Amino acid sequence: xxxxxxxxxxxxxxxxxxxxxxxxxxxxxxxxxxxxxxxxxxxxxxxxxxxxxxxxxxxxxxxxxxxxxxxxxxxxxxxxxxxxxxxxxxxxxxxxxxxxxxxxxxxxxxxxxxxxxxxxxxxxxxxxxxxxxxxxxxxxxxxxxxxxxxxxxxxxxxxxxxxxxxxxxxxxxxxxxxxxxxxxxxxxxxxxxxxxxxxxxxxxxxxxxxxxxxxxxxxxxxxxxxxxxxxxxxxxxxxxxxxxxxxxxxxxx
Length: 253
Description:
Layout: E1 2-7, E2 19-20, E3 23-24, H1 25-37, E4 42-47, H2 57-70, E5 76-78, H3 86-92, E6 98-99, E7 103-106, E8 109-113, H4 127-134, E9 141-146, H5 165-172, E10 178-183, E11 190-192, E12 203-206, E13 213-214, E14 223-224, E15 228-235, E16 241-248
Parallel strand pairs: 1-4, 4-5, 5-6, 8-9, 9-10, 10-12
Antiparallel strand pairs: 1-15, 2-3, 7-8, 11-12, 13-14, 15-16
Helix pairs in contact: 1-2
């Protein structure tokens, strides 16, 4: 049995007092990490993108500082979101907890961190990333994590979702050892339905943001503050898994 936490969409600024739609995002990240630290059964953390809101180098330094300030000691894996600059991760995430590996081996499971960042806010899984999925170890249960959502969620963020969804789902139809996918980007915790006609059971999740919640409006971004937090997963050796969402109180002024 392995338990880990997923965090996402911090949207930090060059100062620790920066606000994203009135939310004080650095203190909220600290609150989330403090909750995680109080659960010693959590073996590692996976961050699924959108570290920065203002694209500043200092925002990456504040993300690094958050793990210093909270005393987190478990490994932290990460991938880039559409707001992020991948090269700044390696430059500024210098704390010893940060792990650059994009494949995580845990017992009978293999977790793959996929790069969906493109030249636009929308996402694309390149041929290289799709090949990683296709050639993944078929003797292990696979869990895929990415920033962009691989299926529409029914509100404005869909115009910035994964553009080659159909290609991904055609690939997955032939890969029954892929048991779960979880993403960030949608700023809301959801358990989603896989596309019609998909030929094997697969669980599909999204992660709440540590910054703000997106209102489910069909055409515009409406900020909410009621479901800010993180997701927790437990993986079992028989291929099953459980997940729960955990929330903090928003810090606004």
